[in-house]
Amino acid sequence: MATATTYGARAHARAQEGARAEAMPVVPASAWPAPPCEAGHLVWAETVAGGNYTHRVLARGTELRLTDLRGDACAHLLLFAADRPWERLNVADTVKIQWNAYLGEDRLLLSDQGRVLASVIADTSGRHDALCGTSTLVRNTQRYGDGTPQSASPAGRELFKLAAAKNGLAPRDLPPSLSFFQGVEVRDDGALDFTGSAGEGASVTLRAEQDVTVLLANVPHPADPRADYTSTPLEVLAWRAEATPPGDPLWEASPEGRRAFLNTAEFLAARGLA
């Protein structure tokens, strides 16, 4: 179809309506073929290709499930309080306050204000990382020959910059990120062992405990030793649900977690949000 004229370009563009690619958002999300929730509650349905990114603002209580479809996805995650991006995921506090460097079910993702941004409510992978962050332009250029967003081997931080810009954020707003589906373990001598993936179909489900801005980059883990840039599709589904209530076992899992939930509840109550 000729696209040399405005009419031809318009006709070509309109001819694409209804076409589907393997990795793309489903709009509306309710058109997703097998929603994991009550009908009409799905608010985000997308497959993110390897070497790509996505972003969304989610309401408090929303549950977000990430699935490694083929065993080589790596979901690098950043979270920001939706209406005050200066409150953001703090990986150091997430690890330090919970006395555990390994993510998994019943762990909390904490902000730099000592509040809960999200909780991990289900996990079938167990291969995650809160230590290494994501890949960088310099490192990917050294390893793969290029790390720019439009290349065949984009770096996670470069993709985060694009996602951030679409939410009014600048590079200086980007803290260290978490990684799901590709992990590391710390040896006795302090060195890191790359644990790789749990395999295709593994998933992790988060619950937003505040309104949050979610940034995701699906790129190889920086500790992945393979010479080739290896990254396969990531499924992203989110649906309306309820925030964790007082008295829930997750609130009482540890004194530190209880304090973080209380900090969150007090802040939301003062704003008339809970």
Automatic annotation (TrEMBL):
<dbReference type="InterPro" id="IPR018959">
    <property type="entry name" value="DUF1989"/>
</dbReference>
<dbReference type="Pfam" id="PF09347">
    <property type="entry name" value="DUF1989"/>
</dbReference>
<dbReference type="InterPro" id="IPR017792">
    <property type="entry name" value="UAAP1"/>
</dbReference>
<protein>
    <submittedName>
        <fullName>Urea carboxylase</fullName>
    </submittedName>
</protein>
<feature type="domain" description="DUF1989">
    <location>
        <begin position="46"/>
        <end position="212"/>
    </location>
</feature>
